[in-house]
Amino acid sequence: MKSKNSIYSLDGVGKVYKFTLAQAFKNKGYRASFIIMIVMIILIGPIMRLGASSSQKAAKSVIDTKEEDVNLTQLFVLNETDVKFGEEDMAFGTSGFRKVTVNMASGSKDDILSKLTNTEALLYITTSVDEQSGMPMYKLDIISSDSTEIKGEILDDLGTFIQDKFDMTRFDNAGVDTDTLQLLAKGFDEKKTYTDKEFTTAVNRKYTDLEVVSLGTTFAVILMMVLSIASSYIVSSVMEEKTSKLVETLMISVRPLALVMGKIFAMMTYVIMILVIGFVGSKISNAVMDVIMGKSEAGQDVLNIDVLFKVGLPNAIIVVSAVIITFLIFAFIAGIAGGSCSKAEDMQSANGGITTLIMIGYMIAMFIPQMDNSTVNHIIVFVPVLSCFVAPVLYIIESITLIELIAFFAINITMAVAMFFICAKVYRKLILIDGSRVKIIDIFKMIFGREGVKTKKEVA
Question: Both ends of the chain: CA-CA distance in Å?
């Protein structure tokens, strides 16, 4: 057991923990952040689903044109192509255009146009040549009279509707069935180079590309949110105590390491409360959306915290463990950064460095799982700190092995422990330094037992 005078003594950490947590919830800014983050987590899934639903409705709006909005009474069709395209091929059926009378016209375009009323239009289908490629192509024009009463968007919807029907007809005339047509239109979905082992792994992959995007994006956002809130609070809290001289009073009964650990544990509780309440709320909001809109389809779970807990209990435990380890590493960094500040202006620089590191990790979490590059995957997992942002997702999607995951945890747990000892060694000196902001080189001198910069008084 460490003596009360040891630099590693945590005597008094409980008091600091309670005080810091209470102060966080007394602060209007952090209360607002607490509520906003929970609401965001709860509603982001439903909002994404509503957005996806709106996009689908927009895509269907062409064939869902309301009949009462269509004041087109007669459509003349002048077809100057070799495709046999008649009234039956348009198949207005139950669409909003079903009351439009179709007249397969003959004669010249100008004669037909000269006789159009303000509720009639001409569908003019011709062949043309693309100016850039020189390749032949079909051209579809819908022309109304100069005095037309028909809205432009109605004619646009009609043109899109007829274009789809014309394409289906011309392919049918050529003997191409629907399945072959879809294959021809899609072509190659992607082109990749694999080793035999990589190919087997890819073929047996459990998750689609959209699900990989969803996992990576959600994990990236959660980490960025957790680390940004906690790091900012720890830096500002340490700085406020230091500039107000409160730290000197606190150290009479509380050891320096207990001060920073109390803050870290308090912010960990703050963040865990956000995630737990947000997750429970997300489950409820998603269940409500399932009742209203039906089960979500692939791609609608992007930026939905619920997705990280649909991968099975073992994987969920891996995700939570990685978040905790990453939190501790950044919390120790924030404690040291806050202690190195001597003026309120220094906080911007201190927070800026941490934010930059978080953003680098965020970009890694967003894009590396989607890249699915074997070399990058196997290298990044051994990079301390940065691997925290991506290794859990890479393991879930089976891009790295269990041995590599164990190595990831071993490396970053070692990193967290090392940061603990570094924090214990330098924090007690940093919080007593007045004057200019302590430079990184001075912190390294403290770590390796050199004096670095002078303090007002030394705390044993």
Answer: 17
Q: How far is CA 206 from CA 201, 212, 376, 458, in A?
A: 10, 10, 21, 58
CA distance 185 to 187: 6
Contact status, residue 380 vs residue 352, Cβ threshold 8 Å: no
E strands in 307-398: none
State the CB neighbour count (10 A cutoff) for residue 220: 22
| pLDDT surpasses 60 at 149 | yes
8 A C-beta contact, residue 207 and residue 215? yes
- CA 381, CA 394: separation in Å to the nearest integer? 9
**What's 453's DSSP letter?**
S
What type of residue sits at position 104? M
How far apart CA 61 and CA 338 sit, in angstroms, is 55
Which range among 70-74, 109-113, 311-315 shows the weakest confidence by mean pLDDT?
A: 311-315
| Model confidence pLDDT, tens digit, residues 57-103 | 544 454 567 778 888 888 999 988 888 887 787 777 777 788 888 88
359 three-state secondary structure: helix
Helix axes 402-430, 440-447, angle to 10 degrees: 100
Structure-token pair, residue 143: 């022309």
- Are 227 and 267 within 8 A, CB to CB? no
HEC assignment per residue over 366-382? HHHHHHCCHHHHHHHCC
β-bridge mates for residue 141, sequence order: 124
Q: Is the pTM of this model over 0.70?
A: no
Please name which of 456, 328, 311 lies closest in space to residue 394, comparing C-alpha atoms. 311
